[in-house]
Amino acid sequence: CCKLDLQGSDTDFWADFEYKLVDSIRNTMDRRTQFYEDEIRKLSENRLMPVWNFCNFFILK
């Protein structure tokens, strides 16, 4: 969610809108990437456990 100033000029509005949109997309991608890295790390750390499954690890990686 982000707040936009509709009272400013058109160029300021679109520049602000573009900046916030790109920033939101970047933040979302960073969080998603971090989630997958954490999952891969957890699966990699558990590879010596008896229930570890290479297929799950391979699919995520």
UniProtKB/TrEMBL annotation:
<dbReference type="InterPro" id="IPR045126">
    <property type="entry name" value="TRAPPC10/Trs130"/>
</dbReference>
<dbReference type="GO" id="GO:0005829">
    <property type="term" value="C:cytosol"/>
</dbReference>
<dbReference type="GO" id="GO:1990071">
    <property type="term" value="C:TRAPPII protein complex"/>
</dbReference>
<dbReference type="GO" id="GO:0034498">
    <property type="term" value="P:early endosome to Golgi transport"/>
</dbReference>
<dbReference type="InterPro" id="IPR056913">
    <property type="entry name" value="TRAPPC10/Trs130_N"/>
</dbReference>
<feature type="domain" description="TRAPPC10/Trs130 N-terminal">
    <location>
        <begin position="9"/>
        <end position="61"/>
    </location>
</feature>
<protein>
    <recommendedName>
        <fullName>TRAPPC10/Trs130 N-terminal domain-containing protein</fullName>
    </recommendedName>
</protein>
<dbReference type="Pfam" id="PF23036">
    <property type="entry name" value="TRAPPC10_1st"/>
</dbReference>
<dbReference type="GO" id="GO:0006891">
    <property type="term" value="P:intra-Golgi vesicle-mediated transport"/>
</dbReference>
